[in-house]
User: Which sequence fits this backbone?
């Protein structure tokens, strides 16, 4: 009940902190004694010390009273400082007798002491008066400065003397009606100096990127001011920056245009002319957007014809076309109408140009030529299993969810009995939250006021961002963050990033609701549904322990998720550009990246739109797979979850099961060794508690969402990381999770098993058990029939039977498969049984498969099943056997560690290192992996672990060099190329075979200091592009990231061909602003490929999803998917991938003019030589992959 007592006593916290007793002078002295420091030691008697106190109090009170008046004076414009009187009178007699004067008589001593102290006091008072007078003058000056700062500046201070004189003459002499004349003349003025972009001396790349980052923040500030209705403030900050030469260099034409557009929307012509003066003063040339702002403003004010015509003439002299105002400017319909009104006044015969219909853009990748090749006659989209009316209803439900921005989900935690204590805790929480919302709102108001004052002083602050949402909305978001904060705390920086994204997402949704975008979205999406429907003819921040305890006692049943954290209730929007796709209203990035980094988005925006079609269509296809919850598995998991979990089966235990740290205090005489032992045990308990809380929370979110969606069909929109690997957007409930997470999901659309579907279900089950990894497929089928009784028993009595499923590698997926097999074998016709179960096909050490194919390495290809064979090859066992050969040779030569390792080298010991070496693991990391495996061996002599792990990692790398010589050569070439690129000052870039531009976000850490009221935080950011590349991370990251981009390309090719099969092109007739067909976006019309290979039942397209190199489909379609998978792997590696990469890197990093004295020229020369030395390839025939049974199995 301590939490409840804390809650009820919260209102008395201020009283508890107030010092006891009356706040008299003695209390003040006690409160401030620490400020004055320690007293000096004295041999004076108590009477003398009391008199010293009297004098000390007098001086102290005098200073305090002056300080109080100073603080009061800071809040008013004028300050009156009164003379400070003596707080205490001097004693008439018995004054202080200083040491060394004891021989004087009492009266003489008293008189001398009194006189000396009086003189000293008069001198100090005189000095104090002088200080007060100086302070009064400073405060008056500061008050005048503040009064001036509170007035927002409108008229700019121009740096060019001629323009400044012209502005002053027009401002004071010209009548108001001549402002339009001034604008016309001003437009004809030639720029007074070179533009910033042309006039500045070449800068270092890091300085250029740093300035670009500053400019992005400034532009965002101005745009946010306009969005939140603070246009005068934006103008004021623009004027302030423009008036200072060093700050003016940060301003760009886009910033001036942003403010001009704001004044144009208000019809404020005079202020718009001020901005034009600043544009000319900055040496910039107005562009189309500048003229659009001027014409829009003149259209609103109905200006005279001559001024408008002069503006149009000047625009023509600048080489700008009038039609461009209506075809390439980001103006809304109302703004375009005002521009057109002004144009018609000067040129009545002008008519809007017809919107051009550009030719369809076609992807030029040879790998996608068939996908986007033109065929005669359209082929319809592969259909979903739901009718049009149902899909329209689901769309409306999803739209309602996203407009509400959050989703309330009932928790699956075991419900507590509603005792008096629980009800009281919930009531206390409700009251506290109301108080906190009020307090937070007040605090946000004060912060906004403070930031507004800083902005009025001409600084770029966070004030407009604080105005994006109301104080109440921001307070609610803060409390939602507190609700899910773990007791052990979370990084403050991470929380700040999440909170910023939630504010941005909510604001974006609000803006779309207020505009006409929602109505337009409904029209476009309904047209899209006609293609899909089956009936188309129709730092660390911790919560207070008391709050944690109170929250646990209240046991509230509701979890709140952001709309973008929950699977969608309708098919996602198709990806049509890097800025459009996935959720209906919630903004989603096409490419995930560290917050604040822009290099990925810049590459995507600069990429020709057609080159991204393959990736966009693959993401759309993955998101179009409909899912449902496996209810039987969910019920069993919930049963265990409510009964304190089962960690052995992946169901986390509640925090109450965490180990308890040692209780009580250490005895005074405890030895250092005992203290260290206790500290280690305490650290272990805290670490386990954190891990258990994290796992439990993750399972709680997943299971609660599964329960929430139990009877629904839902979809998982996808995006990709910077390497091109795809991921579902909803983070808590998807198919990329653990064994338990995957077992909860199945396809919403079923497929009859057909003649071979049941066999594939059995093979999949045996694969999940991990019991027959080295056996052929036929042997796995035989094994499945042998254990059929155990399979059926597991399906019928999972918790009370023989529990065979609990002993396998993937228990929950195996159980779900047992249930599916049981239903199929008991069906009247197993071939006709409609199965929703996903069957997986895994790549055999897929990274090494890509390396072997790149190098045409026959030995390596055989080890990773690129060659046909009767039995599956196991590369891990092969490496272990080669290591054993080396060990035996060393043992014979008397190497002690090799002799100790006899009988301990196994597949398990080397597997993790072999698996990760292809992804860049170093010898140091590999040694740690092997050390961990050796420590798990109970009979291995632990005193040899360190030496043995060093020996084994060396032999593992030697074995891989022996078995995969081509692979190691390619890996070394990639590493060395990246090292040299980083030394030239650039981050490594490349383009995937499907046209996705990639850049590695590894830079030197930049230290950022955030000063706060409670504490200052310093954090490191590695994604800051203004910093030099991190050479170590660039070179170690390039090989694995490049291979990941290849496996992503293979997956996307497989997805596109599985989904669309036979190939044709069909441009949709759906036309709307911002969306042209299925692949529109704001750019030119694109050709949308709609095609499908007929499956055995005549249905077009296969259901296909993936977990990187693990491909999923229906049991009936496994054979077709396997065929497509192999064909696309061969097509991918038939391209000259390494030579294409070499040519791209040479062009990107070695071309251009070089200064003969530049320090990086030597690096560029070495880089060019290295890049042109592409590793030679072997004689492996890729066509053999098509006949390899165990390539993916």
Assistant:
């Amino acid at each position: 009940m301590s939490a409840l007592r804390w809650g009820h006593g919260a209102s008395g916290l201020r009283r508890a902190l107030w010092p006891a007793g009356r706040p008299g002078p003695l209390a003040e002295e006690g409160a401030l004694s620490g400020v004055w420091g320690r007293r000096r030691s004295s041999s004076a008697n108590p009477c003398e010390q009391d008199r010293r106190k009297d004098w000390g109090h007098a001086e102290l009170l005098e200073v305090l009273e002056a300080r109080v008046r100073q603080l009061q004076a800071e809040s008013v414009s004028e300050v009156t400082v009164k003379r400070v009187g003596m707080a205490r009178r001097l004693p008439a007699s018995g004054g202080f007798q200083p040491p060394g004067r004891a021989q004087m008589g009492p009266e003489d001593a008293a008189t001398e002491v009194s006189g000396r102290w009086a003189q000293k006091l008069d001198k100090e008072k005189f000095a104090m008066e002088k200080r007060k007078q100086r302070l009064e003058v400073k405060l008056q000056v500061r008050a005048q400065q503040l009064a001036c700062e509170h007035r927002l500046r409108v008229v700019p201070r121009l740096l060019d003397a001629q323009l400044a004189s012209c502005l002053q003459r027009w401002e004071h002499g010209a009548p108001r009606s001549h402002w339009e004349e001034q604008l016309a003349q001003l437009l004809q003025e030639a720029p007074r100096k070179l533009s910033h972009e042309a006039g500045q001396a070449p800068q270092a790349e890091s300085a250029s990127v740093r300035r670009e980052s500053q400019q992005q923040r400034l532009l965002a500030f101005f745009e946010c001011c306009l969005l939140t209705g603070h246009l005068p403030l934006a103008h004021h900050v623009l004027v302030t920056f423009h008036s200072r030469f060093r700050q003016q260099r940060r301003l760009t034409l886009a910033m001036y245009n942003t403010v001009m557009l704001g004044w144009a929307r208000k019809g404020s012509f005079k202020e718009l002319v001020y901005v034009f003066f600043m544009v000319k003063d900055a040496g910039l040339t107005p562009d189309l957007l500048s003229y659009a702002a001027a014409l829009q403003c003149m259209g609103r004010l109905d200006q005279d014809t001559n001024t408008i015509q002069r503006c149009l003439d000047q625009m023509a002299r600048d080489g700008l076309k009038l039609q461009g105002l209506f075809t390439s400017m980001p103006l809304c319909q109302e703004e375009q109408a005002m521009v057109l009104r002004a144009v018609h006044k000067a040129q009545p015969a002008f008519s809007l140009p017809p919107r051009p219909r550009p030719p369809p853009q076609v992807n030029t990748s040879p790998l996608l030529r068939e996908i986007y090749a033109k065929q005669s006659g359209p082929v319809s989209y592969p259909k979903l299993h739901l009718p049009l009316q149902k899909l329209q209803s689901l769309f409306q439900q999803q739209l309602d969810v996203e407009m509400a921005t959050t989703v309330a989900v009932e928790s699956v935690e075991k419900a507590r009995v509603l005792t008096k204590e629980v009800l009281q805790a919930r009531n206390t929480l409700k009251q506290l939250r109301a108080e906190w919302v009020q307090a937070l709102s007040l605090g946000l108001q004060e912060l906004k006021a403070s930031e507004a004052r800083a902005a009025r002083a001409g600084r770029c602050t966070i004030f407009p961002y604080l105005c994006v949402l109301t104080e109440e909305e921001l307070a609610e978001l803060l409390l939602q963050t507190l609700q899910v904060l773990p007791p052990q705390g979370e990084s403050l920086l991470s929380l700040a990033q999440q909170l910023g994204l939630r504010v941005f997402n909510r604001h974006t949704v609000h803006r779309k609701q207020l505009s006409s975008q929602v109505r337009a979205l409904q029209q476009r999406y309904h047209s899209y549904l006609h293609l899909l429907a089956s009936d188309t003819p129709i730092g660390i921040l911790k919560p207070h322990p008391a709050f944690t305890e109170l929250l646990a006692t209240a046991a509230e049943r509701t979890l709140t998720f952001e709309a973008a954290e929950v699977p969608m209730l309708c098919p996602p929007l198709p990806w049509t550009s890097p800025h459009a796709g996935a959720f209906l209203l919630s903004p989603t990035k096409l490419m995930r990246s560290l917050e604040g980094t822009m290099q990925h988005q810049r590459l995507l925006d600069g990429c020709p739109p057609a080159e991204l079609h393959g990736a966009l269509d693959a993401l759309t296809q993955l998101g179009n797979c409909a899912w449902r919850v496996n209810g039987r598995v969910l019920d069993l998991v919930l049963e265990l979850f409510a009964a304190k979990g089962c960690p052995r089966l992946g169901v986390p235990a509640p925090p109450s099961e965490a180990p308890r740290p040692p209780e009580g205090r250490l005895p005074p005489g405890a030895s250092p060794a005992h203290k260290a032992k206790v500290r280690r045990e305490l650290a272990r308990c805290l670490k386990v508690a954190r891990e258990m809380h994290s796992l439990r929370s993750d399972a709680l979110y997943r299971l609660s969402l599964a329960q929430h969606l139990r009877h629904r069909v839902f979809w998982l929109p996808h995006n990709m990381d910077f390497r091109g690997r795809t991921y579902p957007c909803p983070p808590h409930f998807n198919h990329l999770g653990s064994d338990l997470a995957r077992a909860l999901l199945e396809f919403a659309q079923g497929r009859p098993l057909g003649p071979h579907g049941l066999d594939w279900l059995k093979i999949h089950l045996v694969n999940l058990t991990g019991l027959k990894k080295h056996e052929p497929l036929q042997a796995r089928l035989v094994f499945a029939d042998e254990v059929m009784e155990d399979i059926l028993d597991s399906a019928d009595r999972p918790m009370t039977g023989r529990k065979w499923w609990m002993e396998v590698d993937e228990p929950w997926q195996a159980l779900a498969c047992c249930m599916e097999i049981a239903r199929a074998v008991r069906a009247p016709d197993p071939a006709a049984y409609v199965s929703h179960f996903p069957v997986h096909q895994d790549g055999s050490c897929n990274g090494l498969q890509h390396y072997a194919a790149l190098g045409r390495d026959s030995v390596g290809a055989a080890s990773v099943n690129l060659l046909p064979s009767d039995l599956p090859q196991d590369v891990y066992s092969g490496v272990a056997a080669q290591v054993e050969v080396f060990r035996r040779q060393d043992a014979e030569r008397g190497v002690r560690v090799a002799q100790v390792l006899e009988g301990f080298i196994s597949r398990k010991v080397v597997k993790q290192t072999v698996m990760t070496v292809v992804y860049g693991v170093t010898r140091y990391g590999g040694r740690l992996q092997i050390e961990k495996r050796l420590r798990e061996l109970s009979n291995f002599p632990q005193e040899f672990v360190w030496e043995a792990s060093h020996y084994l990692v060396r032999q593992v790398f030697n074995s891989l060099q022996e078995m995969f010589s081509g692979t190691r050569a390619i890996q070394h070439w990639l590493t060395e190329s990246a090292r040299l690129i980083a030394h030239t000052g650039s981050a490594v870039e490349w383009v995937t075979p499907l046209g996705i531009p990639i850049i590695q976000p590894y830079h030197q850490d930049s230290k950022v200091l955030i000063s706060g009221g409670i504490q200052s935080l310093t954090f490191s950011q590695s994604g800051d592009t203004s910093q030099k590349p991190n050479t170590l991370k660039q070179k170690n990251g390039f090989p694995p990231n490049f291979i990941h981009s290849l496996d992503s390309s293979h997956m996307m090719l497989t997805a596109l061909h599985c989904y669309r099969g036979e190939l044709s092109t069909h441009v949709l007739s759906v036309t709307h602003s911002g969306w042209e067909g299925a692949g529109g976006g704001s750019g030119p019309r694109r050709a949308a490929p709609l095609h499908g290979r007929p499956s055995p039942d005549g249905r077009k397209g296969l259901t296909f999803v993936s977990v990187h190199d693990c491909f999923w489909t229906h049991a009936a379609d496994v054979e077709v998917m396997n065929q497509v998978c192999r064909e696309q792997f061969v097509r991918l590696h038939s391209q000259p991938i390494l030579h294409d990469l070499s040519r791209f890197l040479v062009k990107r990093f070695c071309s251009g003019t070089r200064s003969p004295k530049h320090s990086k020229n030597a690096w560029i020369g070495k880089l060019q030589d290295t890049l042109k030395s592409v590793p030679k390839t072997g004689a492996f025939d890729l066509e053999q992959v098509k006949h390899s049974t165990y390539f993916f199995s």
User: Anything to note?
Assistant: The two ends are 58 Å apart (CA to CA). Residues 621-662+672-749 form one domain. The longest helix spans residues 106-149.
